[in-house]
Protein: Transmembrane protein 168
Organism: Aquarana catesbeiana
Amino acid sequence: MCRSLRYCVSHCLHAAMTRLEEANQEVNMHTSVRYLGFLARITLLVAICMGLYVRWEQTAETLILVIFILGLFIFGIASILYYYFSMEVASLSLSNLWFGFLLGLLCFIDMSQFKYDVKEEATKYLLISSIIIRAMYALVERICGCVRHHPTLLTAAEFLELTGFAVASTIMLVQKSLCIILLITAFALIVIDLRMKSFLAILNLVIFSVVTPVLFFPSLKIPVNPFALSCFFCCIISEPFLDVYFSGLSVTERWKPYLYRSPICRRFSVMSIGLIELIFFILAAFKLQDLHLWYFVIPGFSIFGIFWLICHIIFLITLWGFHTKLNDCHKVYYSHRTDNSLDRVMASKGMRHFCLISERLVFFSLLSTTVLGAVSWQPSIGTFMSLFLIVLPLESMAHGLFHELGSCLGGTSVGYAVVIPTNFCRN
């Protein structure tokens, strides 16, 4: 009896100690990974401070010094909120907004006079180090399982950094600032496109990565710091790019922030897409003013413009019809919530067949946009290029949504058969 009791006690203690050791190892691993993220942030902060100091030292601009001191003051407040008041959300929001803003200043302040300065060279290496450490942090965090993926379009950190960068672009002229803001919008849509795992998301990212440095910024004729610009874009894109592989969310879970929106918001999104498409078509029509290749531009725009209009009228009707059917699915889902899931309701309503047809229609819309953009390409107009980069991920997301819903949803079918009676029938 005593031996059995001693065995049970020792076994329980051993199991408890083993579990405690595993928990400690897990906590240590999470802490180590988190320190890697802190290192990336500290490296970026040092790079920003050094870059702003060099610009103030070389230009003697009082405004740069004021922004530099104000930035340090705000980061100090964010640290106090984080460590002493446990206001993690407010602290991170404040710091992310200022990281985006200060990186934007580093991008758009002219550095041609001091680009060979020793401190400027150190700033470049720090920015590159920040990119590498941030990418390693995102990769290690996912390999170690420290990330819990939640359905979202843009995280708060991404939105605030993009907002800060867009605000920093207002130091330029209004037209150039508008082009930068549109480019940031296009980049945000590409981030969402990657997070939704759209079929053409990687291709859109490649197009954005080529068009932006090669054509977009030269068209604005503004000095841009390529290292700060690369740091900004790479730090934001690293996590959604890796989530294309590491995210285990299902289709409806990934699209939940959109599919579960109110009908008014979803209808408004369709109207917004239609307005953006119309503005893109109007800007593409400005190519007709170029009489240098009129024999190519006018017939090409006439043919492909009509094709584009037909495809996109069908595209908008398809989106509107999809949301009409989705509203019906929501009504059934909320009235029988305990018995059904939205996937089953959508399958019973024939959404799979609708999505399979819509996928092909949206693909033709995407193809027509690509062809029209190529025919009416305007390398000297940044607004056209930024709108083209906005339209592509929008249509890519619609194509990806229909493609994935058509692949994962169940279908409905009716079977007919002739059954031979087995019993003997008497007259």
User: Anything to note?
Assistant: The mean pLDDT is 84. The chain is about 80% helix and 0% strand. The two ends are 82 Å apart (CA to CA). The chain has two domains: 26-172+222-248, 252-408.
